[in-house]
Design goal:
Layout: E1 8-14, E2 47-51, E3 66-68, E4 88-92, E5 96-100, E6 106-110, E7 116-119, E8 150-157, E9 163-166, H1 173-180, E10 198-205, E11 208-214, H2 229-232, E12 241-247, H3 256-270, H4 272-275, E13 279-284, H5 295-305, E14 309-312, H6 321-333, E15 359-363, E16 366-370, H7 372-379, H8 386-398, H9 401-407, E17 415-418, E18 421-424
Parallel strand pairs: 1-3, 2-4, 9-11, 9-12, 12-13, 13-14, 16-17
Antiparallel strand pairs: 1-8, 2-7, 5-6, 5-8, 10-11, 15-16, 17-18
Length: 427
């Protein structure tokens, strides 16, 4: 793999914590005992992913692996709310898959222009101004901010291309890309001249164009990691159509039919879906074909028997290249769009503990409850959803919280305060 091309990286992301609410009371001349005026804490900053079309690799993540957003600022007296923490935007190349580092499940396919919130910042805590009631006029408590979400993810770049070039090293894939687009891949007469994928836009006619990807040549055993194929086969996963470039000249003493079958076998070993992708065979280097050679006819009979179309080209002289590109463009009209991977990651529910692990403060008619697992539980509950609220109530009952509160003397109508949630207790 070339040093300048990185297509896989693992990073750790952590959103900012919410600021704490303030405990404060209004004080000014001639007002000896003003009411509570503690401000709310600011929300923590989020971690946001955004596509950047100026990026073509994950090189930026080679040396920086940890990304942390800013915390929210604590509230102040005078009803002054703390400032929200600044969100952190991480830019990635288009076509980057975001996977959970532990399970490998897809969280998001960064193939569109919509930003994605990977880690949500923690909500700021309420100041004591929110807890004043006719019977509790001097609340001396406020709520702490909630922690921000954190996630270890693997970024995996899968190029977005309509057409992928496959074949053995030195069969002319890079030359074909260079004569059909403005891409300028390295070209030389030796194996593995191409060390990293190249993209080129092919303009066939006005309003007719497609993107073509050239990857390093595949050799036997590529699906198991031989050569460079294992590292880069992922970049043709999305391709709608494959062009299988075969050297029919036999210039290196190879048999084109055997080469064709070997590459097809490697594609099958890597991915059955990829091996079933529509394929056009480009019989390259026809200008170097010896007059007495039957390579071309044997290859044509073989691939047509398998249902593939074969076109004679010479990338070096551009013979047949325009015809091939027009055929490819026509073929793409009937094929489905570039694959966009659907997320299959499900956020695990936070573990619940017991009421013994919770801290309960009895402040007049208010019961303030806190705890590590309870904090995580609250941050994952959507209180606007009926089923989510029922799930939250069930977890509180299962852990024995309500039983413990009753043992401590809670009365109907008392206020139960759990982080961002406050409700009236009823048996």
């Amino acid at each position: 793999m070339a040093n300048g091309f990185i297509d896989k990286a693992r990073i750790t992301c952590r959103a900012g914590n919410g600021g704490n609410g303030a405990v404060a009371f209004h004080r000014e001349k001639y007002i000896a005992a003003g009411g509570p005026d503690g401000g709310d804490g600011g929300d923590g900053g989020s971690i946001i992913l955004k596509v950047d079309d100026n990026m073509s690799t994950l090189m930026d993540f080679r040396y920086k692996r940890k990304y942390v957003a800013a915390n929210g600022v604590d509230g102040q007296g005078g009803r002054k709310s703390g400032k929200d923490g600044q969100s952190l935007t991480i830019r990635v190349p288009r076509g980057t898959l975001v996977r959970d580092a532990e399970t490998g499940e897809i969280i998001k396919d960064m193939s569109d222009d919509q930003p994605y919130v990977l880690c949500k910042g923690g909500r700021g805590g309420w100041g004591n101004q929110h807890f004043a009631t006719p019977t509790r006029q001097v609340p001396r408590f406020a709520k702490a901010g909630l922690p921000g979400e954190s996630h270890d993810v693997v970024l995996e770049l899968k190029l977005l291309a309509d057409v992928g070039l496959v074949g053995f090293p030195n069969v002319g894939k890079s030359t074909l890309l260079s004569v059909t687009s403005n891409a300028r891949p390295k070209i030389a007469n030796y194996h593995f001249t191409t060390l990293y994928p190249n993209l080129g836009v092919i303009y066939v006619d006005e309003g007719v164009s497609f993107v073509m990807a050239d990857i390093p040549g595949i050799i036997e055993g590529a699906a198991e990691g031989a050569g460079l194929g294992h590292d880069f086969l992922r970049h043709i996963d999305r391709c709608r159509l494959l062009i299988h470039v075969v050297d029919v000249s036999g210039s290196e003493g190879r048999d084109p039919v055997a080469d064709f079958d070997a590459i097809c076998a490697e594609l099958h070993d890597y991915s059955v879906d990829l091996s079933n992708r529509p394929m056009i065979v480009a019989a390259n280097k026809c200008d170097l074909l010896p007059p007495d050679s039957d390579n071309l006819e044997r290859l044509r009979s073989h691939v047509e028997a398998l249902g593939c179309k074969l076109y004679e080209i010479s990338a070096g002289t551009t013979q047949g290249v325009k015809t091939l590109m027009r055929v490819v463009a026509e073929e793409l009209r009937t094929l489905p769009p570039v694959t966009i991977y659907e997320p299959d990651y499900v956020e695990p529910l936070p573990p619940t503990g017991t009421s013994d692990e919770l801290e309960i403060d009895h402040l007049g008619s208010t019961w303030v409850i806190s705890g590590v697992w309870l904090e995580r539980l609250v941050s994952n509950i959507n209180f606007d959803d009926y089923e989510s609220r029922n799930y939250f109530d069930l977890q509180l009952r299962k852990c024995g919280l309500f039983t413990r509160l009753e043992e401590m003397g809670i009365q109907d109508g008392d206020t139960v305060s759990i982080y961002d949630l406050e409700f009236e207790y009823q048996r």
